[in-house]
Amino acid sequence: MSNVKPIVEEIRYDTNTLNSAVKIWEHTLNKRVLSSYPTVYIINDNKHSKYSVYVGETTNIKRRTLEHINVDIIEGNIWENFSNSNSSMMYVIGHNYFNKSLTLDIENKLMQYLSSVDSVENLYNKRTNPQSEYYTSEHFEAIFSKIWQQLHRQNAQLFPLESAIQESAIFKASPFHKLTNEQYLAKQLILERVRRALQNDETGQHIFVDGEAGSGKTVLLSSLFFELVNEFKKDFKIDNPSLYFLVNHNQQLKVYQQIADKLGFNYKSGDKITKPTSFINNHSLDEKVDVVVIDEAHLLLTQGQMSYRGKNHLADIISRAKIVVTVFDKNQILSRTQIWEEDTLQQIIETSQQNDNYIRLLNQMRIHADKQTIHWIRNLVDNRKIDNIPKDSLGYEIKVFESPKSLYEEIKAKNENKDSGISRVVATFDWEFKGKPKSNGELWGVEIDDWKLPWNLQLSVDRLEKKLSWPEQSQTINEVGSTFTIQGFDLNYVGVIIGPSVIYRDGKIQFDKNKSKNNKATQNRTMADNSKQNFAEELLKNELNVLITRGINGLYLYAVDKELQNALLRASKGEIIID
User: Fold this and answer.
1) What is the location of CATH 3.40.1440.10 in the chain?
2) Taking every annotated instance into account, which residue ranges of this chain make up the domain GIY-YIG (predicted)?
3) Which of 101, 249, 244, 225 lies closest to 174, judged by CA?
4) Which CATH number fits domain 181-361: 1.20.1260.10, 3.40.640.10, 2.60.40.60, 3.40.50.300?
5) pLDDT for res 164
6) Which label site among 132, 390, 393, 419 has the fewest CB atoms less than 10 Å from its CB?
7) What is the pLDDT of residue 1?
8) Domain at 371-572: CATH architecture
9) Given this model, what pLDDT does residue 127 score?
């Protein structure tokens, strides 16, 4: 069924051209699907190599297009702009097996792809309509790929290669992803709680979403925030909603702001998609905002630091909002400034549970591996044990290298292979790095024997790539990433250099804080009772956890500590003796 080719026709966006085209389609056997069946259409206008795009689906292309031209033009500037432009064009897409559900899925995925395209400046029709199971749904992916390939052949600037789109951070955080059942149920529960809180004018509500690395938290929040923006406009008739998205991570902030800009939210993304300290400093306790959504809430500060003069980011945000939604993973806390008093965190979780506001995500969405491989990775981090590396039935590759150079060369080869996608080298923070360059002009870097590579954020960036996140920038294949640049992102293959702070003694992984350069992890934390405690063991373990869970299809390892390296090599050869 999916072998049937789609029909893609490009016409000028005007009444005369439409009428002429429909007449031809009606009398051409293989093109009747465009006039007599459900279709998907893409209206686009190219100005200075930047596109404004509208994606839609309809059961009658002639009637729907005339509505846009004659009726919708009264409602908003976008239709007036399309109609008045001499460069506006329209792609009409048909297929013999299109039905309402399939066209809605095609429409949704086209928006997901186009929102990730560099040349698309504005994307309109921001509804999300992913469908569940239906007749022909099993052929959806194959049919969509053929449609995209045909569009690519007609206009490579507007429709780049699928592989290029799927590698972008915007695509991976897109609100148009089809949610898993677990994510969908979580989203519906959150929406219900938000509606109830706003209708009843409740304040101080906190929804706590708990999930480990790769459990789909970011996609859930992106989809939720996007739907909330549209719901505010549709149901509450608010063009500038009191709705905020916060993340305490510079690289991820870039991605969310790009998504908001492309989707045309009616405000500057920097105002409503920002960092926690900025939000707190710009909002008083007296005027509570409606909703705050926080990604990577484990990165929130739990003590004052620099421009933040409070004591707890989350408490200060909750006191400034009617309802707050957070996603949290305690195993991704990386700094002493993010450490929670155990009883305080437990109280927050218990309160959310009592209010039926606690959600736990259990599925592993990032790592494309079987249960045995997932268990091996979790056992290494959580239990600090190294077992024999299993052969993965899904093709996930765990490989141990004899040297950092050979690991780097393999990652470079994977990165250059278009089928493998973006791959990068990362390392534990065990080599010095400072904001200011060295006095001799050399770059701060990771140096092992005669091999050296600079740390992240030092090589010059192409001006066209400055808005991209660190892993997407082309020069970063020649840098070593850290948790500061890679947390929250996916790589197809990740090469992890495990520095000297991670050692292997008496059959278990241990951590030597004296060999780490990460002062935020190794220095003492002053607690509520003024006692000083050290959390280096926990924080260095979390650092390792973040790094080794970045790879979708593979994890490459090299360890500086000789005993750890030998244990990993034995594990790769199946030589570990299990008691």
Assistant:
1) 7-166
2) 36-126
3) 225
4) 3.40.50.300
5) 83
6) 419
7) 44
8) 3-Layer(aba) Sandwich (3.40)
9) 62
pLDDT > 90: percent of the chain? 66
Query: What's the pLDDT at 452?
Result: 97
Query: Could you tell me the two tokens for 478?
Result: 């020649």
What's the number of CA atoms in the CB half-sphere (13 Å) around residue 417?
11
Which stretches of 236-304 are DSSP H helices?
250-262, 269-272, 276-281
Q: Determine phi and psi for 456, rounding to 5 degrees.
A: -60, 160
Residue 242's SS3 state is: coil
C-alpha 470/C-alpha 465 separation (Å) is 9
Q: How confident is the model at residue 267 (pLDDT cuts 50, 70, 90)?
A: low
- How far from 301 is each of 232, 330, 331, 474, 487, CA to CA, in Å? 30, 13, 15, 32, 16
Segment holding 184, helix H or strand E: helix 181-199
User: Which residue would you say has higher pLDDT here, 125 or 152?
Assistant: 152
Q: Residue 351 and residue 346: Cα distance in Å, rounded? A: 9
Q: Tell me the whole-structure pTM to 2 decimals.
A: 0.84
Tokens describing residue 407:
């690991």
The tokens for 212 are 């480990």
* Region class of 119: left (phi > 0), else alpha (psi between -120 and 50), else beta: alpha
Check residue 201 and report its DSSP letter. T
* pLDDT one-digit tens code per residue, 508-550: 999 999 999 999 999 999 998 999 999 999 999 999 999 999 9
pLDDT in tens, 151-175: 999 999 999 988 888 888 888 888 8
Question: Residue 60's CB: how many other CB atoms inside 10 A?
Answer: 15
Q: For residue 305, what are the β-bridge partners?
A: 308
What's the CA gap between 495 and 453, in Å, rounded? 13
The answer on pLDDT for 2 being more than 50 is no
Measured CA to CA in angstroms, residue 520 lies from 129, 188, 310, 511 at distances of: 44, 38, 18, 15
In angstroms, rounded to a whole number, what is the distance separating the alpha carbons of residues 77 and 256?
A: 25
Q: Provide, for the chain, the percentages of residues in helix, strand and coil under a 3-state DSSP scheme, each rounded to the nearest 5.
A: 40, 20, 35
Using 50, 70 and 90 to split pLDDT, how confident is the model at 74? Answer: low
Query: Helix, strand or coil for residue 489?
Result: coil
Q: What is the pLDDT of residues 184-210, one digit of tens each?
A: 999 999 999 998 888 888 888 999 999
Q: 7-166 belongs to which homologous superfamily?
A: GIY-YIG endonuclease (3.40.1440.10)
User: What b/e readout covers 266-302, taking b as 16+ CB neighbours within 10 angstroms?
Assistant: eeebeebbbbbbebbeebeeeebbbbbbbbbbbbbbb
Rounded to whole angstroms, the Cα distance separating 383 from 402 reads 25
- Which position has the higher pLDDT, 439 or 375? 375
CB atoms within 10 A of CB 363: 12
**What is the distance, to the nearest Å, from the Cα of residue 76 to the centroid of all Cα atoms in its chain?**
31
